[in-house]
Amino acid sequence: MLAVRATAPRALARTARCLASTAAPALARSALAGSARTQSPRLALPALARSFHASPLSLDEIVKVPSMAESITEGTLKQWLKQKGDYVEADEEVATIETDKIDVAVNAPRAGTLTELLANEEDTVTVGQDLFKLEAGGSKPEAKEEPKKDDSPEKDQATSAKEEPKKDESSSSAPKEQPKKEEANPEPKSEYRKPDSATPAPKVPEQAKKQEGKTAPESPPKQGSRNETRVKMSRMRSRIAERLKEAQNTAASLTTFNEIDMSALMAFRSKYKDQVLKDHGVKLGFMSAFVKASSVALRELPAVNASIDGSDLVYHDYADISVAVSTPKGLVTPVLRNAEGFNFVEIEREIAALGKKARDGKLTLEDMNGGTFTISNGGVFGSLMGTPILNTPQAAVLGMHAINQRPWVDSDGKIVVRPIMTVALTYDHRIIDGREAVTFLVLVKKLIEDPALLNLYN
Length: 458
What we know:
Helices cover 38% and strands 22% of the residues. It is an alpha+beta fold. Among the domains are: 60-136, CATH 2.40.50.100; 238-456, Chloramphenicol acetyltransferase-like domain (Chloramphenicol Acetyltransferase), CATH 3.30.559. Helix 7 (287-300) packs across helix 8 (344-359) and helix 7 (287-300) packs across helix 10 (434-449). Residues 1-9, 22-28, 30-58 and 164-198 have low confidence and may be disordered. Pfam families: 2-oxoacid_dh, Biotin_lipoyl. One of its GO terms (cellular component) is oxoglutarate dehydrogenase complex. Residues 60-135 form the Lipoyl-binding domain. Its EC number is 2.3.1.61. It is an enzyme of class 2 (transferase).
């Protein structure tokens, strides 16, 4: 009996602790729910939702500077075509990066809104650098429609019909009131006062009288403007300057000249240009003949089509001819590959396509890389004579100049007037000897003066 009495308080204590441990969470939940209901029932559900769901992930995507080529690791951010807050479509151009050779377009990877621009114009950016943030999704904002104006002739007639009676009424009422005023009131005096004949004319200043009869003093000569404009050199122009100076410092440049009678080629062009334009949709010019003649001469004289690579001479059995094209940003030389296998029409078509891409700024690195020989046509700008500079690592460059009417001794020994072009070949004397350079230019002259000879060379 005593044992039971002694253990009873302990059992009761353990039972109380168990009840407290099981009832406490329930009481706490009921108290929380009660307080939430009594204080702010609107905040109870969001609070629970936040406790059971993770926060949404950010939809912003960071777009980086794309890779451009193996040899190009950086460029200049030339222009933002879109601004912060603008909506862009997938693959729409957002920015332009200027490199040493070409302009690279940065496109949006998907449709969305620009939330942040991470670089400024004229900044130097490297491949892989963060460029801008794009919030994916959304839709393009609709353009606001302006209220349409009803320009129908019926409405114009109706409005004009309404306005005409008003004008008639106002015009008819005016003359009715005018006679009454004239009868009631005397004629008002005009504020204008006739000049009195007795009033003397204003005196001429004595200083003006003294200057009469004398010549006016000479005004000081106007000085011209002495303003200066400082513009940062573009990457392309910097690269051109670097390569040209490198060519001067590295190659042993020498230039040889010759004169070509263009009569036969001009007659050939006049005879077939309309037919070529009608059948093929391209203009027949002189460049195709010079490209074809140069490709033949390059095969006959392999040294002119060679280049130096370290301590080796590399001879090319193909003619990848770079054609110099002038653009607003500078001179570029897209490559006409395997020109030896093209005819006149195919050469003109390829040159026209490359020239259009150059003027539109759409040339790619593949269009520019390589080239074993260069042709530059300064004659289109009126150049009489000049020494073209090498496009390293090429060994030679052909310069075409203007066509001028000049006295010429023909094959019969008679002096005649013929259209003459001066051509120049600048060559690297480390690779090409003078004999090979002169022979090359003489062969080009021979083929241009008699285009039919091109059929004898495969």
